[in-house]
């Protein structure tokens, strides 16, 4: 079965929102150094653009989170496959996500980092999909909202495909197949 991609947000619309988010973060973090945490893999393009739209001093680190379950719906079982290299203790930390969907990934990472006692901990997400939320967690900075559909492109994948696309698309025509093991 072939996937069909329907355009959701163009690269120009994404760039406008990334620019806005950078300005908001600049405004909120005056005089402070930020530790920006990229949640791999999906956030890598958003992260690369976001850090270049922020003018405050910063350091960067990377985590790899992954959830088991169906292709298009998280099971709620989230594992950290790569931890941060820096300590977050007493730092001003922003988690950078590509999408908050059920919220399981963000909730797991947020509480892990909170246990390490950062000075502050906020969340910036490119996409906020509240209709699928299963746990109560909200991002502090939101680029774009969506109600339904499985989104690919600009870092987001379906079975590891489409991450390289410069625009965001809704994937149509792919069945949801349960997986016993993560990719
Ligand atoms: C995706 C996405 C988010 C998470 C959001 O990651 O990048 O991290 O799902 O979904 P949730 O709110 O339902 O937990 P995924 O586990 O697919 O790994 P990837 O980033 O490597 O694509």
Structure description:
The protein is α/β, with parallel strands linked by helices and 183 residues long. It has a single domain, classed as Rossmann fold, CATH 3.40.50. It has three helices and nine strands; from the N terminus they run βαβαβββαββββ. The strands form two sheets. A six-stranded mixed sheet has the order 4-3-2-5-6-7, with helices on both faces. A three-stranded antiparallel sheet has the order 1-9-8. It is globular and about 45 Å long. The protein starts with a strand and ends in an 11-residue tail after the last strand. The structure holds 1-O-pyrophosphono-5-O-phosphono-alpha-D-ribofuranose. 1-O-pyrophosphono-5-O-phosphono-alpha-D-ribofuranose is lined by residues 39, 41-42, 65-67, 74, 97-106, 157.
**SSE order, one letter for each helix or strand:** EHEHEEEHEEEE
Question: How big is the Rg?
Answer: 16 Å
Q: Look at the helices and sheets and give the structural class.
A: alpha/beta
Overall shape: it is: globular
Bound molecules: 1-O-pyrophosphono-5-O-phosphono-alpha-D-ribofuranose
Q: What is the end-to-end distance? A: 20 Å
Low-confidence stretches: 177-183
**CATH class identity:** Alpha Beta
Beta-strand fraction estimate: 35-45%
Our count of helices gives 3
Q: How many beta-strand segments?
A: 9
Strands of the biggest beta sheet: in what spatial order?
Answer: 4-3-2-5-6-7
How can the largest sheet be summarized? 6 strands, mixed
Count up the domains. Answer: 1
The appropriate CATH architecture is 3-Layer(aba) Sandwich
CATH-defined fold name? Rossmann fold
What is the helix content? Answer: 10-25%
């Amino acid at each position: 079965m072939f996937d069909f991609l329907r355009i959701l947000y163009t690269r120009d619309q994404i760039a406008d929102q990334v620019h806005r988010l950078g300005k908001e973060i600049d405004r909120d973090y005056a005089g402070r150094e930020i530790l920006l945490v990229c949640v791999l893999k999906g956030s890598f393009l958003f992260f690369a653009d976001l850090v270049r739209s922020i003018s405050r001093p910063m350091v960067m680190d990377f985590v790899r989170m992954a959830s088991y379950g169906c292709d298009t719906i998280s099971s709620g079982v989230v594992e950290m496959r790569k931890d941060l290299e820096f300590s977050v203790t007493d730092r001003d930390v922003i988690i950078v996500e590509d999408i908050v969907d059920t919220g399981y990934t963000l909730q797991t990472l947020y509480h892990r980092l909170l246990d390490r006692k950062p000075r502050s901990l906020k969340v910036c997400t490119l996409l906020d999909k509240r209709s699928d939320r299963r746990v109560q967690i909200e991002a502090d900075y939101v680029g774009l909202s969506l109600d339904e559909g499985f989104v690919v492109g600009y870092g987001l994948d379906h079975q590891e495909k489409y991450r390289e696309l410069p625009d965001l698309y809704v994937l149509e025509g792919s069945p949801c197949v349960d997986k016993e093991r993560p990719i």
